[in-house]
Records
---
Amino acid sequence: MGSSHMQAKGKTFWDALSFSGPGPERINGRLAMVGFVSAIAVEVMRGEDLAAQLANGGVLWFAGAAALLSVASLVPLFRGVDAPDRSDAPMTADAEIWNGRFAMLGLVALAVTEYVKGGPLV
């Protein structure tokens, strides 16, 4: 791992994070799922909209979660294990991808709805 790029089981770091690689959509989906649930939970508990959450320390929480989930998602890839290899019904790799996509749409819809409404959703 002392070279200019990390390599494990035939995959380089950049292969894993390439546009069509196994990392980006899975990592972004996992972040979106955690972010959507967290945003709704904070709205219910504190009444803060998404903009207020980001202004009140949410950016730091996001950066920490992004780093942690990225590392946790990449470690199995470098060990030669991909999500489809570990999936079992009903928790399939395809279900995780779709849930991540819906969470991404949910975050965008939440932000747009709060902007149009002028405040928190709940």
---
Amino acid sequence: MQSTRPLKVLAPALTPFHADLSVNRPAFIAFCRWLVAQGAGLAVFGTNSEANSLSLPEKIELLEALVDAGIPASAMVPGTGLCSVPETVALTRRAVELGCAGALVLPPFYFKPATDDGLFAHYAQVIEAVGSERLKLYLYHIPQFTGVPISCTLIERLLKAYPGTVAGIKDSSGDWANTERMLREFPGFEVFPASEALLEKALPLGAAGCISATANVQPGAIAQALQAWGTPGFEALQAQLKGVRSLFQAHPMIPALKHVVARAFGDEGWRHVRPPFVPADAAWAEGLCAQLTQAGFRMERP
């Protein structure tokens, strides 16, 4: 069943670095402004933001800088999940204070095995410590990175305990059966697949849109496809989106995205990544750019 909510695309915005790997704040602000102008929301400090290579002070400073620059907090659902409750609370609380639309919260991912009871206790402590009716918490399910799955049993328990606060989930598992189950079992819960390639299957079941790595490079095209959902033009737009997504997925995603942004924006500084990543290798990166051009991909410059 299709959702009556406005469909949204959110970009886990790439984080640009200087040559010394300090954050390039002006470039970050400019990039986020461009994403919003293209019709995307901002899931800053997501996986493709290299979030777990950023410190808590860096994240708070960048979030405040975006708001100070006039980028609407209502367009932001920052990633605020860290392994410790105090740090997760600090970043989530600041996001709420700034007026962000929500907070995307990873489970604590170091100590394993993590039981549903333990994960419930973690999320409950975060919600109660933030202590705000304005908090909209989005769970972040990416077990291939965290090793900590968010089960449907846990979702059901959190929804019963914190209705109106636990608002949705990003499902980055890559397991369509899991995404489909969430969509069917929790109507009204905002489920975001992690790829625009799944929109044709997810939207009829009520998906809220998508939070996608490749929204960094085709935000306008994804926004256009969401607007076209239910019209004859959607199928062609979806096919184009899937083609571009598949080309990026054949390579290390973050270095690939940054290489393409560097080419499109004419700024080689965008190729910088923090370890353990290394910059895109020219041997495959230039081949990727050629394939994208052949596929009709063009990235709008700011």
---
Amino acid sequence: MSPRRAAALRGGEQSLREHLIATAERLIRERGTAGLTVRLIAREAGVADGVLYNHFADKEELLACALRARVRAVESGLGDLPGAGTATVEENLRAYIVYGMRLHAGILPAFAGLVGQPAVLARFADPGGGGGRPGGDWRDRLLAYLRDERELGRLAPDARIEAAARMIVGVCHEAVTSTFVHGYARPAQPPGDDEVGDLVAAVLDGIAPGRRPGRRPGRRPDRQ
């Protein structure tokens, strides 16, 4: 099928490059990335195999673009994240944690099949290509949120926000990746209220009796 005819079938709303990315993103959503071939993408897009190489340097570039599209698609369905100074810190941290868990549950299946394809992951993570680590924007926004709350005085001035962010990110990763590491057939489950509440309490209150949040014996506080 010629590029002109492919565009006509789509009503002219997308360029052929965008159509190929959208097709690959749909296949990743439906089938994952394992075994995804140029031939399959071309067939689903309604073009000849060689057409892909008129728009992408190689299969890795196309898959990296499709992964970015997949991440954006998942993020678009998660709603907005709260800003510093709104609601309470506890309520806002709950929102960030739920968002992070749902984000990773949505995008991890796309990356699970790429363990043996480092070239695709490298293309995805290339800053010049508009990529980044999976969920990186959420992690950066969480860290910025904690910094802003500290500046507003709603967190202790010596609060160890880097450590708090790593704790939250780690829990979100663990809750999702465990379903794949242990070979569970069911998808990752959304976090329960008690689970989220316990994590928020651990972050805000600490776990040692009588210790001020954000301080460790013998260590200087973070200087952000």
---
Amino acid sequence: MWLYYVKLGVISLRRNPVLTVLMVMTLAAGVAASVATLTILNGMSGDPIPHKSERLLVPLIDNQAGDRGNVDRDPPSQLTWRDAEALWTAAAASRQTPLWGLGPSIDPGRKDMPLFFTDGLAVGRDFFAMFETPMIHGSAWSAEDDRRGAQLAVISAALADKLFGAAGDAVGKSIRMDGHDFQVIGVFDRWAPIPKYYRLIGGNYFEGSEDIFIPIRAAINLNLDFNGNINCSSSPEEPGMAGMLKSECVMIQYWVEVDDAAQRRAYADYLEAYVREQKALGRFPRELNNRLFDVREWLDFNRVISDDTRTAFWLSVGFLLVCVINTVSLLLAKFSARPGEIGVRRALGASRAEVFRQYLLEAGVLGLVGSVLGLLFTVTILAFVRHFDRNLELVARIDWLTVGSALLVSVLAALLAGLLPTWRACQVRPALQLKSQ
């Protein structure tokens, strides 16, 4: 019987093509707008590493000048090198790593390929285990390499393919970066956590990973150019990068990994003890203002999802509701033109429940047709967003969640729109309709 009702729904849609096209287009437009914005919002707001997001932490220390009072209660979003190095050396957590942005030039040493620039990071060896970088060849450097600042590199498979023809051939080879030779000891697969939570300061939230990673002390020893945000509460006493590293300028992003909530509390206690120790040495004039954010808290603190994105989503939901209301009006017009048909069915023994199921299924068929067109509209909108804003290229992509959302939203919207018209159709009195024929 259900299949029979579906067949009747298809026949009914074909009976009045103009009205059907209007309803399908109305539903498709509402579904496309809401599902496209939902896809982008979901990509922006998802937990990029859910199984350990509560154990990856960002410690912040307030080293701002004391004359600011309570105007700015949030501490700086980065650490000074002297603080990052002290925390890193103390190793009070299970794993820890500083992050130093790089924008190095790469000399391929080939006549067929000119010098080019890429994106990179100077980090500690724990970085790869903490953020689960998918290593496919070789490995990360050792703790001893960290201490001495060895000129070693871990590169992406894309960069390895570009320079050496195959990712597997890169390990052991030399790569020339900013005029210095680095030995490649590891190659990692394509890796693009969304959002790019480990480098929210001075980076694009929704771009792919960097192409090259080197020990942070190698970057410092070689005086490589820093690529990132630098904020200074006072001018460095010495010129150049050497003076910057000794100053109160915040420029280093820092992450730690703990094993559980108890170790997180212990690390917070350690951080407080460190700040009090530095206060005794004449630093940190403001009152104690440490922070310790896990991944989700860090995303919220940096407002990864803008107010404009949230507003756009709710506007699209409002547009979908308008489309549903318009569809209700069109279905009312469609069903109200068929009282004779309904009266005959009721006179032949069909109950109100059976009429309700038939006409509600007809609305469901309308939703299925609208979902197909809405999905096509959604793909078009997301393609336009990717072309218009390269920063959203990784989040504005069609996936099974998008497909399922489009189907579900369209059918539910059609069924919702069909409730009132279907209920009105069930109120037809068969005697009056038969008498008028």
